[in-house]
Structures are given as structure tokens and as C-alpha cells.
Amino acid sequence: MKLTVMAVGRIRPPFDAAEAHYLKLLKARQKVEVVEVKADEAMLRRVSPDSHVVALDLEGRAMDSISWAGWLDERRLAARDVAFLIGGPEGLGEAARERSGESLSLGPQTMAHQLARIVLLEQLFRAGKILAGEKYHL
Questions:
Q1: CA-to-CA distance for 104 and 116, rounded, in angstroms?
Q2: pLDDT tens digits, residue range 8-17?
Q3: What is the DSSP letter of 91?
């Protein structure tokens, strides 16, 4: 299973260093690719038709870290690639939401779309640690 983070816009400082940090940490446990595009339409063209597509959206289902671990474990058991869609400053468009099989939220607060990338990577890393039975902070 491969995880792909599809994001509208380029990562910029100071977020780029945090993204590199989490991608390095994730490398040992889970293949994660970040794909940057200019618009939702380009993102949708690059999503594999066989992937489980997840929209990151304020209206989506919120999960704590244990729930993220369970969610990731279910995806692993399904052995299906996962594509996370992160919109730009205006969020995801309707077509991206419609293409998604699931919608998840990173919390009720509004955050910069670049920060959403970091929060997602951190939760995937934390979920991997939980599944490996390693210590993590609540």
C-alpha cells in the first residue's frame, strides 16, 4: 500500500522543513509520496482510479490518534493505495469532494493548507508508531 498526499500549491518555509522531517521519519514504516499540483483539476487527473481517495475537509470525520492508527490498519489490510486530497487556500472544490470516497477532518480549527500537510504527515507517523507498539505521546 502506498500513501499519496496530493496537495494544491507548493510547500514553503517554514513548513518545508517540517514536511521533510516527517517524510524522513515515515520512510522506515510507510511509503508516502507528496504530489504538488496547481489546481484541483490537476490533482484529480493524477489520482489513480484504483486508489481510496480521502478528502481532507473541515466537515469530515475527526479522529484521535488511536482512531488514526485503526483507520491506517484497516487501509493496510485492504491493501489499496490511498490518496489524500488537500486543497489550496480556498479548500477543495466540489469535484474533488465528489471524487472522494471518504472525508476526514484534522480538527475544527481553520489552518493553513500547508500546515494541514504537516499535521496529516504527523498523524500518519504517530499511527505507524502506535501500530508498531512503540511509545507515543497522547
A1: 12
A2: 999 999 999 9
A3: B
More confident call, 137 vs 31: 31
Q: Answer whether 108's CB lies under 8 Å from 77's CB.
A: no
Amino acid identity, position 73: D
| pTM of the complete model beyond 0.90 | yes
Q: How many other C-beta atoms can be found within 10 angstroms of the C-beta atom of residue 81? A: 18
C-alpha to C-alpha distances, 73 to 33, 35, 68, 86, nearest whole angstrom = 18, 23, 8, 22
Category of 107 on φ-ψ map: left (φ > 0), alpha (ψ -120 to 50) or beta:
left
Element (H, E) at 33: strand 32-37
pLDDT in tens, 82-106: 999 999 988 899 999 999 999 999 9
What CATH number does domain 3-131 carry, 3.40.50.2000, 3.30.70.20, 3.40.1280.10, 3.30.565.10? 3.40.1280.10
Q: Is the CB of residue 47 less than 8 Å from the CB of residue 53?
A: yes
Alpha-carbon distance 108 to 106, whole Å?
7
In contact, 29 and 127? CB cutoff 8 Å: no
